[in-house]
Amino acid sequence: MSTIDARLTELGLTLPQAAAPAANYVPFVRTGNLVVISGQITLENGVLKYVGRVGEDFTTEQAYEAAKLCGLNLIAQLKAACDGDLDRVTRVVRLGGFVNCTADFTEQPKVINGASDLMAEVFGEKGKHARAAVGVNTLPLGVAVEIEGLFEIA
């Protein structure tokens, strides 16, 4: 068991199955020592969760949990990109977070912290990253949050 797999177990986290792409794209691209992971939504083992708008259907705290689920999906894709060995991850470089929210909602950074906090918990110092947290008027399948990621691997 890798160090990161042990850390996930210690945190009581189980990675979902890495989702297949839903359109004409690939779930990740490896180029050199970088892995770019396509946007991950609030899919949990094939079931959509958190469908709706933050500020209308979900609180900031609920949306934080949605972002954490997106983060778990990112890590699941990353594990696939690393041929099953998450210890190859040398840095979480950047997350791009999108929040499906009402026009007056302004707590996008607090929502995306769900994924950011997860990366720091799982990868430690290597999990600290640059990011964007953006509010949008809709997301695929009506989900509340979508997050993409850029990672460095050995």
Automatic annotation (TrEMBL):
SUPFAM superfamilies: YjgF-like. Residues 6-141 form the Endoribonuclease L-PSP/chorismate mutase-like domain. CDD domains: YjgF_YER057c_UK114_like_1 (cd02199). This is Endoribonuclease L-PSP/chorismate mutase-like domain-containing protein. It comes from the Bacteria. Pfam families: YjgF_endoribonc (PF14588). It comes from Magnetovibrio blakemorei.
